[in-house]
Design a protein that fits this description.
234 residues, alpha/beta, 6-stranded mixed sheet, 33% helix, binds adenosine-5'-triphosphate, ATP-binding, ABC_transporter-like_CS, ABC transporter ATP-binding protein, nucleotide-binding, AAA+_ATPase
C-alpha cells in the first residue's frame, strides 16, 4: 500500500493533511494514534470508500477503490457489519455468495477465528468479542491479500486479544502472505506489530519498526516514543 499526499476534508475541516504512508507487503502494520486523529479516515481512503480532496492511494499496485481490488481487500469496520438476526453460518454463506468465494470457505474462516461450535448461533446472542470475530471471519472470505482492520481488538479480553494477534501473524507469515493494516488507540498493542504508523491530528508522526522508534527516541515504550515525537514536532 502506498499513500502519497493524501488530503481529506470532512465536514468542512481538513482531517488528513497531505499525508504519505507506506505499508510493506506481508507486514503487520499498526496504525496508532489518539481518538479522532484520522485513523478511520485513512483506512477508508485505502479501502476506497472515502471521498478524497487530493493525493494518491495505491493498493496492490492499483488505485484504491478499483473494481479489481474488491475481492482482494478484507475490511472490518468498528461497527459490526454482519446481520444480527442471522446465524454465524448464514452470514458467512451470504457474504461468500456475494464475493463468489469457494463453497467451503465459510467453514475455513469459522475455524480460523475459533468460532467452531457457534455456527448455528444467531449473531444477536453472541458476546461482543464473538461478534467481532464473525466480522473478521467475513473479511477473511475469498482469501484477501490485504486486510484492513479498524480497532479489531477493542472490548476483547486479553486472552482473545492475544489469540487474534496470533492469527494476524499466521496470516502475514503464511505461504501466501497477507498484508495487515490494523488501527488501534491502545499503544500497548504496538509491540505486537512488525511496523508502526504513528498518527496525530491528521498527520503521520513516524513510520518505522517498533524497535527503531524506541532506539530513535530512547523511550522505554511506544507511548513514550509517541510523546517524544510529539514534543519534537511542536
Ligand atoms: N462523517 C463525518 N463528518 C464530518 N467529520 C467527520 C466525520 N467522521 C469523522 N469526522 C472527523 O474527522 C476526524 C477524524 O476522524 P476519524 O474517525 O478518522 O478518527 P479516528 O482516529 O479513527 O478516531 P477513533 O479512534 O475515535 O475512531 C475527526 O475530527 C472527526 O470529528
Amino acid at each position: 500500500m502506498d499513500v502519497r499526499g493524501l488530503r481529506v476534508v470532512r465536514g468542512g475541516q481538513t482531517v488528513l493533511h497531505a499525508i504519505d504512508a507506506q505499508v510493506p507487503t506481508g507486514s503487520v502494520t499498526g496504525l496508532l494514534g489518539p481518538s479522532g486523529c484520522g485513523k478511520t479516515t485513512l483506512l477508508r481512503s485505502i479501502v476506497g470508500v472515502q471521498r478524497v480532496a487530493g493525493g494518491e492511494v495505491q493498493v496492490l499496485g492499483m488505485p484504491a477503490g478499483s473494481a479489481a481490488l474488491r475481492d482482494r481487500i478484507g475490511y472490518v469496520t468498528q461497527a459490526p457489519s454482519v446481520y444480527t438476526d442471522l446465524s454465524v453460518m448464514e452470514n458467512l454463506r451470504y457474504f461468500a455468495a456475494v464475493l463468489g468465494a469457494p463453497r467451503e470457505d465459510p467453514e475455513r474462516v469459522v475455524a480460523a477465528v475459533g468460532l467452531e461450535g457457534k455456527e448455528g448461533a444467531q449473531v444477536e446472542r453472541l458476546s461482543g468479542g464473538q461478534r467481532a470475530r464473525v466480522s473478521l471471519a467475513a473479511a477473511l472470505l475469498g482469501t484477501p491479500k490485504v486486510l484492513v482492520l479498524d480497532e479489531p481488538t477493542v472490548g476483547l479480553d486479553p486472552v482473545l486479544r492475544a489469540e487474534l494477534w496470533g492469527l494476524f501473524h499466521r496470516l502475514a507469515g503464511g505461504d501466501d502472505p497477507v498484508t495487515l493494516l490494523i488501527s488501534s488507540h491502545v499503544m500497548d498493542e504496538a509491540s505486537r506489530c512488525t511496523r508502526l504508523l504513528l498518527m496525530r491530528e491528521g498527520r503521520i508522526l513516524a513510520s518505522d519498526t517498533p524497535e527503531a522508534l524506541l532506539a530513535q527516541t530512547g523511550a522505554d515504550d511506544i507511548e513514550g516514543a509517541f510523546l517524544s515525537l510529539v514534543g519534537a514536532a511542536s
